[in-house]
Specification:
It is built from no helices and 30 strands. The protein is mainly β and about 400 residues long. The protein has one domain: 7 Propeller (Methylamine Dehydrogenase, Chain H), CATH 2.130.10. Keywords: Repeat, WD repeat. GO terms for molecular function: diphthine methylesterase activity. InterPro entries: Diphthine_MTase, WD40/YVTN_repeat-like_dom_sf.
């Protein structure tokens, strides 16, 4: 099990483009229908006097010495095509944007987590070129809480369902079909901030990560309620949390990223996690109150804020290409794979270190040559200097 930071041994990628945004970027995602289009969310905090406050996303509210806190942000739609980066639309919003995810079940629709305890549904047109429009806003938590993370349920029958987490440690599940929101379950899942959420592939389990080194598994059941499938005002089902499995010993700091690795391998429900402790870990959750089994881990030299799958290859030795946003250490491209003998390995394939402040937001898409993935185009950002960088890497064959 390799726990050293070996990123000094891999090539450092240089950017093809870089621009400075108006506000600090906090989240980013490519449209699943248009690989050239991506949306950036921003986060900005003002003091009572109207001057900016240099706070990071993960800073606790009680650390900010201001009697009045006014957060605001924006949504920006970019199109990257033929080496040209074009801003197609920008919308100012009266809240900071902390997370952003498209759904694959409704064309052009994405959800954002806001600093006012809401989740908003937004859309871009079917061409992926804007404008950005708001469809609905759901008050999931109190307006004094921050919605920190959200995750769409990808099971088709529940594809309108979103899980959201808050700065006061709560986790909620609601259905975007209904307004006002039908919030099925809300629970105080974490002692402190609940930074991240992830559904498993079957949508029957929800994992959440918290600031107190907490990794929680919430077993879910779907209960029928009044109404019918044809009744647009009354839900036909609701979620219920069963007893949670809570682990506080595997991670040495807050759990900030959770990525289920699918499909299930030989009955193993494998997770990849990231933490403030600078490690990524391949975990095998176990039943009961026992700690997950650590199958592999690697230190990346920076707190691991987000993890995204760029590509996956099946076979006897399945392999993932993973993009990691590593806060003060920039971005990394990882290969996470399972050998024929059942051993899990984590290798750093490339790094991007041009960012001079916190890398909270990165995403990428595949470069295809003759129908084969030969590399990736990545957009990564840094918070305080408001920098957005576009870079490419042809790393795929390094792990083969």
């Amino acid at each position: 099990m390799d726990d050293g930071d070996t990123s000094d041994d891999v090539p450092s990628i240089r950017s093809d483009h870089s621009i400075i945004l108006d506000l600090p970027p906090s989240c980013i995602e490519f449209s699943p229908l248009h690989s050239e289009s991506f949306v950036v969310g921003t986060y900005y905090l003002e003091t009572e006097s109207g001057t900016s406050h240099t706070t990071s996303i993960q800073q606790n509210d009680d650390q900010i010495k201001s009697s009045v806190q006014n957060r605001r942000g924006s949504l920006m739609l970019f199109v990257l095509q033929d080496q040209n980066l074009t801003l197609f639309d920008a919308v100012d919003v009266p809240f900071a944007v902390l997370d952003l995810h498209f759904t694959r079940c409704r064309k052009g629709v994405f959800a954002i987590a806001t600093s006012k305890g809401t989740v908003c549904l937004c859309t871009i047109n079917i061409n992926g070129t804007g404008p950005i429009e708001t469809l609905n806003s759901y008050q999931i938590f109190s307006d004094s809480s921050l919605t920190l993370s959200l995750a769409w349920n990808r099971v088709l029958s529940h594809s309108d369902t979103i899980a959201a987490s808050s700065s006061d440690g709560r986790v909620a599940i609601f259905d975007t079909k209904y307004q006002p929101p039908m919030t099925y379950t809300k629970t105080e899942a974490h002692s402190f901030e609940a930074w991240t959420l992830a559904w498993t592939s079957k949508g029957a389990e929800l994992y959440s990560g918290g600031d107190g080194s907490e990794l929680c598994r919430h077993d879910l059941s779907v209960r029928p309620v009044g109404g019918s499938l044809n009744d647009g005002n009354v839900p036909s089902h609701r979620y219920e949390f069963e007893a949670s499995v809570r682990d506080t010993k595997t991670h040495e700091a807050g759990v900030t990223a959770i990525l289920p690795l699918q499909p299930v391998f030989h009955g193993e429900r494998v997770l990849l996690t990231g933490s403030y402790d600078e490690y990524v870990r391949v975990l095998l959750p176990v039943e009961g109150g026992n700690r997950p089994k650590v199958l592999a881990e690697k230190r990346l030299g920076g707190g691991v804020w987000r993890l995204q799958i760029l590509d996956f290859r099946e076979g006897i030795s399945p392999a993932y290409k993973i993009l990691a946003s590593c806060m003060h250490a920039g971005a990394r491209i990882l290969e996470v794979r399972r050998t024929e003998g059942g051993k899990w390995l984590i290798n750093v394939l490339a790094k991007f270190v041009e960012h001079e402040s916190m890398n909270y937001a990165s995403d990428g898409c595949c470069i295809y040559v003759g129908g084969r993935v030969e590399g990736f185009t990545v957009v990564s950002t840094s918070f305080y200097d408001k920098k957005l960088c576009v870079w490419k890497t042809e790393t795929y064959r390094q792990g083969e």
